[in-house]
Amino acid sequence: MELVSIGLVLAGVVLVFFGAALSVYATALLGFLIGAAGGYVIAPQILGTIGAGGPVGLAVAIVVGGGLGAALAYVALSFATAIPAFVVGAYIGLYVITPIFTEGGLVRYLVMIVAGFAGALIGFTLTKFALMFISAFIGAAFASRAVTTADITAVRDTFSVDPILFDPLGTTPIVGVELPLFGILFALGVLSQIGLFKLGWVARFATVLPGIGRVLGNSDET
After folding, report:
1. Which string of DSSP letters, residue by residue, matches 28-52?
2. Would you say 115 and 93 are in contact if contact means Cβ atoms under 8 Å apart?
3. Distance (Å, rounded) from C-alpha 113 to C-alpha 173?
4. Least C-beta-crowded within 10 Å: which of 9, 92, 125, 146?
5. Cβ(69)–Cβ(79) under 8 Å?
6. Do 155 and 141 contact (CB within 8 A), yes or no?
7. What pLDDT digit, counting tens, does each position of 121-170 carry?
8. pTM higher than 0.85
């Protein structure tokens, strides 16, 4: 699991700083991570019923889930972007917006759903800008270890999303100093990705990575 943890951190760093610039590749990576995590969580329930449990069956479920997630993300980019955009929007609604005016209750979850649909709409209609935000958010969650493999394992064991819920405004001890590591990485990611577009680096990526224009527009490939 240690190699998986390192892989998640590295994937998070790539998403944080190069998400939207890598376009279809970042979307496929998001799809793979979500699909693989889904396969890891759901596999015990499915494999147990057919008697195909064990490490091999679990590994196959993770690979198949990740492959399906990446394939769906590649085939339906705008829709694929809308899905993580809904997740991010709902998360912000639950942990950033609702604490401003309520402590809980039904209103909290109504705001979460509305914020999720608002995020999905933005992700579907403004794919390039939404991908900057989504990739920086999800990437920062993995790179800062706000979400770890242990959390995903806890989701599988409890079959609840609570273990991967984290406070976006929370702090992490770094060399004895409490820093909002997730927030710092998220902000740096968004700013750096905007810089990649403004400084023309995306066009350079497009010369060596085919398919960039599928998300960013054909003008970025010229």
Report:
1. HHHHHHHHHHHHHHHHHHHHHHHT-
2. yes
3. 32
4. 125
5. no
6. no
7. 887 777 777 788 888 999 999 999 999 999 998 988 888 888 888 888 78
8. no
